[in-house]
Amino acid sequence: MADAIADTRRLFTKPQNLNDAYGPPSNFLEIDVSNPETVGVGRGRYTTYEVRLKTNLPIFKLKESCVRRRYSDFEWLRAELERESKVVVPPLPGKALFRQLPFRGDDGIFDDSFIEERRQGLEQFLNKVAGHPLAQNERCLHMFLQDESVDKNYTPSKIRQA
Amino acid sequence: MSFFGFGQSADIDIVLNDAETRKKAEHKSEDGRKDKYFLFYDGETVSGKVNVTLKYPGKRLEHNGIKIEFVGQIELYYDRGNHHEFVSLVKDLARPGELTQSQTFDFEFTHVEKPYESYTGQNVKLRYFLRATVSRRLNDISKELDIVVHTLSTYPELNSSIKMEVGIEDCLHIEFEYNKSKYHLKDVIVGKIYFLLVRIKIRHMEIDIIKRETTGTGPNVYHENDTIAKYEIMDGAPVRGESIPIRLFLAGYEMTPTMRDINKKFSVRYYLNLVLIDEEERRYFKQQEITLWRKGDIVRKSMSHQAAIASQRFEGSSHPEKRAHTSPLCSECMCRDSAKTSA
Q1: Which of A157, B56, B162, B199 has an alpha carbon within 20 to 30 A of A5's alpha carbon?
Q2: Distance (Å, rounded) from C-alpha B182 to C-alpha B290?
Q3: Are A87 and B194 in contact (CB < 8 Å)?
Q4: φ, ψ for residue B341, nearest 5 deg
C-alpha cells in the first residue's frame, strides 16, 4: 500500500455546556488553619488552631465549617487514617519535644515563630489529606473537620453516599 | 594462531551477492551502539561468497572441513550459555583436506524462513547471522556476519477504536478514546479524553508509552518496563464536559513491533498509560495495551516474490474493548502498598 498521509483530524467531541464551562467547578475545597490561641495556665497550657473549611463537594455534610483543634487532635487524625485507610498519610510538622524542655531562652512551644511554622505545616497536612479520594471516605476525617469536638471513642467507619 | 608460530592460518570473509543493492537497517547492539546491518525479510534467499585468504602464501592449510551456517537464535542474558536456535541451516563448502592457496566458495540458502524480527532488548536478544567455519584439529577459524530481519504486516482488516469509561466513584469519571487498537510504527495516535465528573483538583495530564519486555516462563516470569515516551496533553484544571485532544506521532520514538511469546521465550508489548496528576502530586493512571506492527515500504521491483508473499501476513489479533464500561482508575501515590515512583 502506498504511503498515505495519516488522518490526524480530531475525534468528534460533544460541545461543552456553557454552565459547565463557566460555572463554579465541582472540585472546590479550601481549608485554612489560622488564629492560633494559647489557652490554659502554667504547665497545662496548649495552643489551638482554627480549622476553617469551605467546599462544594457532596461528600462533606457542611459546605462551610469552622472548628478549633490542637496538635494532639491532628496526631489522632493521622493515626486513625493510617490504621483505617490504605492511604500513605503525609507527615505532620514535628512534635518538637526538645522545645518542651525547661531552661530555654525562648518561649518553647509557645514561641511565635514556632507556632507559625507549625500552623503552616498543619495547613499543608490537612489540604493534602482532605483532597484524597480515599481519605474522604473516612468518618474520622469528617469528624475532625466538621464536628464540634473530636470524640476519640468513636467507632471507625466509612462514609457511604446515597 | 598456532603454538609454534610456524603454522598456517587464514582470514575468512563473508560477502553477500547483493551487497551493492541490498538495503541496510540500523540496529542497536547490547551496549547501546547503533550499527547498520543488511536487511532481510522472511522468505528471501541468502547467497554470497566465502573468501578464505591464507595468511602465509605458499604454505598449505590443513583442515577438517569448511562449512557455512545460517543461524537464527534467541539468547537470554541470564542464561548466556544456552542459545535457543530456531533456524539452523548448514552448507558444506569443502570436505576435509587442505588448501594450497586462497580460495572463494559460493553458497546459497534458498528462500530461508525467518519467522521473527531481530531484537536486542534488556534481557534477551534474538539475532540472525551467517557463520563460516574452517574446522581444524586444534582450533577452528570462524567468522560471523550478522544480519537484521524485519517482519512486515499489512493493514489489519479489523482495527476498532479503544473507548472506555474509567474513574473513581464520585470523584473522577473520564472517558478515553484512542482511534485504533493497532498502530504501525509510523502511525499517529489520535484520541481524546472527555471529563464526565471532576471533583479532584487536576493540574496535569500526560500519555506515556511503556514497553514491557517479558522473559521466562511459569514462576520465573520477569517483566522489564521501560517508559519510551512521556507526552503532555493537558496543563491546567479541567472541568466537566471538557474534551482534551490527543495527537501523538509514533515515528519519533524507537519502538519495535509487538512480539507475543516468541518461540515461547519472550514477549515485547506496548502500553499507553494515561496519567492524571492532581495538585498534591497524586497520580491516577489507566494502562491500555496497543498492538504495534511494521508496515512494509512501497514494494520495489527488486523485492523477491517470496518476500512479497511474506509481507501479506497479518500481525496477531488483539481484542480491543469496544463497549464503554466503567472500570477502576488506579490512584497510586498515596496508597501504602504501591511501590511505584513518580517520574
Answers
A1: B162
A2: 6
A3: no
A4: -110, 145
The reply to whether residue B240 touches residue A11, judged by beta carbons under 8 angstroms, is no
Question: CA B24, B153, B313, B208 torsion: positive or negative?
Answer: positive
Asked if residue B256 has pLDDT above 70, the reply is yes
Q: How many residues does chain A have?
A: 162
**Burial, A161: exposed, middle or buried (Cβ in 10 Å; 0-12, 13-18, 19+)?**
exposed
> Do the Cβ atoms of B120 and B27 come closer than 8 Å?
yes
Q: How far apart are CA A66 and CA A54, in angstroms?
A: 9
**Measured between alpha carbons, how far is A90 from A62 in angstroms, rounded to an integer?**
25
Q: Write down the residue that cell numbers 530461508 correspond to.
A: B112
What is the Cα–Cα distance from B108 to B285, expressed in whole angstroms? 53
pLDDT tens digits, A10-40: 999 889 999 999 999 999 999 999 999 999 8
pTM of the model as a whole: 0.84
Do residue A25 and residue B154 have CB atoms under 8 angstroms apart? Answer: no
Q: How many degrees, rounded to 5, is the angle at CA A10 between CA A7 and CA A11? A: 100
- Residue B211 confidence class, pLDDT cut points 50, 70, 90: very high
- At residue B77, the 3 state secondary structure works out as helix
The separation between CA B72 and the C-alpha centre of its own chain, rounded to angstroms, equals 14
ipTM of the complex, rounded to two decimals: 0.87
Q: What is the CA B131 to chain-centroid distance, rounded?
A: 23
CB atoms inside a 10 Å sphere around CB B10? 21
Angle of CA points B225, B228, B231, to nearest 5°: 125
The Cα B113–Cα A133 span in angstroms is 55
> CATH for A23-146, among 3.30.1520.10, 3.90.1150.10, 3.40.50.2000, 3.40.50.11890?
3.30.1520.10
Q: Which of A9, A10, A16, A27 to mutate to test the interface with B (most CBs of B within 10 A)?
A: A27
In DSSP terms, B274 is beta-bridged to B207, B286
CA distance B216 to B8: 45
Selecting from A11, A20, A133 the residue whose C-beta is nearest the C-beta of B240 gives A20
Q: Which residues pair with B107 in a beta bridge?
A: B48
Q: From the CB of residue A162, how many other CB atoms can be counted at a distance below 10 Å?
A: 3
Domain ranges (residues) in chain A: 23-146
Q: Could you tell me how far CA B113 lies from the centroid of its own chain?
A: 18
What Å distances lie between residue B243 and B202, B247, B272, B274, CA to CA? 14, 13, 18, 14
Neighbours of B234 (CB within 10 A): 20
**Min Cα separation B42/chain A (Å):** 19
